[in-house]
Amino acid sequence: MVDLLVHEGKKIFKSYGINVPSGYIIHSFKEAKKPEKESVVKAQVPTGHRGINGGVVKVKDKEEISKAIGEISSIDFNGFKAESFLVEEMVPHSKEIYVGLTLDRSKKMPILIISPSGGVDIEHVPANQIKKFYLDILLGMQGYVKREAFNFIGLSENYREVFYNLMESLWKVFTGEDCELVEVNPLAVTSSGLVALDSKVTIEDDALFRHKNYQKEYTSSDPLEAEAKRKGIAFVRLGGDIGLIANGAGLTLATIDQIKLAGGNAGDFLDLGGTDDPEKVAEAINLVKKAKPKALFINIFGGVTKADTVAEGIVKAIKGSDTNIRIVVRLMGVNSQRGIQLLKSNGIEAFTDISEAVKKAVEVSK
């Protein structure tokens, strides 16, 4: 996925007719202009919680802009440093709303999430302050959805038309830009209408061929996922304590299930695909180790992939490493016995039977 910066998301919003504050991007204080009114400086990083981490600073003049840039530049935002800054005018408003469009993968449908309590993480908003609407991809933002959403957030009648138009525009952004997420938090209620004070736009990886202007050095709010992406490796965080490397999406998903059935929880997992390049294998292991799992389970089923060359990469990765992460390997297929022998001779627990291997991986993770 590609997490756009705030100013990139707002540029898209503006192109679809959504109001955003006046502002401009700078990379250093030298590019700053004298603010005509009270403004804010916002860190441009592809991750959330910028405000609570000091990434949004109010300013009144160029000196305060300079000070704000200095302060923001020193902050680590979940592994990212701000290299650009959005300077935009403050927008007086009477109310803040949350509006988000995303995908519910379990129902295979887009979902609209709305709350009259904007400006805070939606996860922290009470359930009775949140309303969700499942949307038919073919019918889009239907009239009843707009009516019920408008009534729920409690705006006065003179905002109805502008709110309806905003809902239509957000739906067009979501579908037209191939988004996984479009979020406005907060959406400000002003005397003249509705203004998107913030933006969070995430674009689906598989649609990047249609959005080449969004391809950039980092494509994820997670530094490890971004690093893996740059190296052409499929890497996903799950939150468990057993790191997993396997070859092929089907085998990877099946292994996650087996770990769960054995009483464990898969954490970060990495799909090697069909490679048996020792350098690539070593690179994959070093990447997963950065996530600091309690154990690392490697499951390789070799058809075209040669198990012994995979084993060479595993040995290469652990040699000279100061990590104390326990590694368990399951090798099956071409030259698997040769690979297992190589692993065992280097002190790595290796199996051909998947059940035994999974059981051991769960055991050493406890």
Describe this structure in words.
There is one protein chain. This protein is of the alpha+beta class and 366 residues long. It folds into three domains: 22-89, 2-Layer Sandwich (Dna Ligase, domain 1), CATH 3.30.1490; 95-210, D-amino Acid Aminotransferase, Chain A, domain 1; 223-365, Succinyl-CoA synthetase domains (Rossmann fold). It contains ten helices and 17 strands. Strands 1, 6, 7, 8, 9, 10 and 11 form a seven-stranded antiparallel β-sheet that branches. A six-stranded mixed β-sheet has the order 12-14-13-15-16-17, with helices on both faces. It has a four-stranded antiparallel β-sheet with strand order 2-5-3-4, covered by helices on one side. Helix 6 (249-261) links the parallel strand 13 and strand 14. The longest helix has 17 residues, at 160-176.
The biggest beta sheet reads: 7 strands, antiparallel
Computed CA radius of gyration, to the nearest angstrom: 25 Å
Number of domains: 3
Please write the string of helix (H) and strand (E) elements.
EHEEEHEEEEHHEEEHEEHEHEHEHEH
How far apart the termini lie comes to 32 Å
Low-confidence stretches: none
Q: State the CATH topology of the largest domain.
A: Rossmann fold
Number of helices: 10
Tell me, briefly, the overall form. Answer: elongated
Feature tags:
10 helices; alpha+beta; Rossmann fold; six-stranded mixed sheet; seven-stranded antiparallel sheet; Dna Ligase, domain 1; 26% strand; D-amino Acid Aminotransferase, Chain A, domain 1; 366 residues
Entry summary:
The protein is α+β, with helices and mostly antiparallel strands. Helices cover 32% and strands 26% of the residues.
